[in-house]
Write a structure and sequence with these properties.
By secondary structure, the protein is α/β, with parallel strands linked by helices. Helix content is about 40%, strand content about 10%. The chain has a single domain, classed as Rossmann fold. The protein is built from ten helices and six strands, in the order αααβααβααβαβαβαβ. α5 packs across α7. The longest helix is centred in the middle third of the chain and has 14 residues. The protein is globular and about 50 Å long.
Length: about 240
């Protein structure tokens, strides 16, 4: 609570500056936290997309419509999309969003996701609910907010959808995935999710939301729990991959 108050006071005292480069934002613009210059420098995922993980396909890989990694892995979610590559300015913004309490960045980061949904006509109209990847209660107490829930709320307001933030839960505390290698990530999140209200997801199409897709281990386990409770279709949307 004190951390949020301090950040709020900082925003009142100091000029509106870009969260990526620190430069003062152009005057007369709606209050955003990423300047036009940094916005133009974001590395975007562009078509053609892998039909599984949603990353950009390079060269001849596009002929198969699936990347080499996804040829070897079967995910429990049906398809994934990410507007950005996890590099450069977006990587810094996500880390600040998650680890330094800069939850106000959710608005600008959510705008990036909403623009991507509109540009590529993602099937939001077909989704019954939006479900954010949850945090364990101990990590939620530490951060004071769930970044996936903030992004989900921003998407929901834009597309008039309902968020179900308390249907999926993490019953055990796990290590931060960023600290682990690919095999360790799989073991770390194994059996790491539980569906509390299975009747709400049964035979439903769901948009599962998180900030980053790397190996896909976390989202895969979450989707496995939702599918095990009867979910029909799961589209994963992350800010970056």
């Amino acid at each position: 609570m004190l951390r949020r108050l301090a950040k709020g006071l900082k925003e009142l005292i100091y000029p509106n500056c870009c969260a990526a480069c620190g430069e003062k934002m152009p005057s007369g613009k709606p209050r955003k936290f990423i300047c036009p210059s940094c916005g133009d420098k974001l590395e975007m995922n562009l078509p053609p997309f892998c039909v599984s993980c949603g990353r950009h396909l390079e060269g001849t890989k596009a002929e198969k419509n699936i990347c080499p990694v996804c040829l070897k892995v079967k995910f429990n979610f049906d398809r994934a999309f990410s507007p950005c590559k996890y590099s450069g300015a977006i990587k810094k913004l996500i880390r600040d969003f998650k680890y330094t309490g800069d939850d106000y960045l959710g608005e600008s980061l959510g705008d990036i996701m909403n623009d991507f949904i509109k540009e590529y006509n993602l099937p939001l109209a077909d989704m019954d609910y939006i479900i954010p990847i949850p945090l364990h209660k101990s990590r939620l107490r530490e951060r004071e907010f769930n970044q996936a829930e903030i992004l989900s709320d921003h998407i929901a307001r834009e597309f008039n959808k309902m968020v179900l933030p308390r249907v999926l839960m993490r019953p055990k505390a796990t290590k931060t995935q960023a600290e682990l290698g690919p095999e360790e990530r799989l073991l770390n999140v194994k059996n790491g999710f539980r569906v509390i209200r299975p009747e709400l997801v049964k035979e439903k199409d769901l948009l599962l939301v998180d900030d980053v897709l790397t190996t896909g281990a976390t989202a895969n386990q979450a989707a496995e729990s939702l599918k095990g409770s009867g979910a029909r279709r799961i589209i994963l949307l992350t800010l970056a991959s």
